[in-house]
Design brief:
There is one protein chain. The protein contains four helices and five strands. It is α+β, with helices and mostly antiparallel strands. Helix 1 packs parallel to helix 2. The termini are far apart.
Length: about 110
């Protein structure tokens, strides 16, 4: 099976699961997505550009109104990177996604404190 077919199947499966979670339920999806999301798509990221898997992740997040939470806060670069290739190159491949409504709720609660 080609790499592109594996990616398509992964997102097909995760979309199927996400569709079955009621909108009012707390939803957090965390894992290694093997995606690179660049600064043009996320304010705080280690990656210099978005790759094909990154665009798949962004499309998935947009479709289900999810926010890639660990790209919304400033952190040291050493805390952002999550993978080192045998060549020594590093990238951020791990992401935490939450429902956009939860992000708004936590922001509202933070403002009230």
């Amino acid at each position: 099976m080609s790499e592109e077919k594996k990616v398509k199947n992964f997102y097909k499966d995760i979309k199927s699961v996400t569709e079955n979670v009621p909108a009012h339920n707390f939803l957090v999806i965390a894992g290694v997505f093997s995606a690179q999301v660049g600064p043009e798509d996320a304010p705080f990221t280690y990656n210099v550009s978005t790759n094909r898997n990154g665009y798949e992740l962004l499309d998935y997040a947009d479709e289900f109104q999810l926010v890639i939470a660990n790209t919304k806060f400033m952190k040291l670069a050493s805390k952002l990177r999550s993978h080192q290739y045998p060549t020594g190159a590093r990238s951020q491949l791990d992401y935490i996604l939450v429902r956009n409504t939860l992000r708004m709720l936590s922001h509202t609660l933070y403002l009230r404190v």
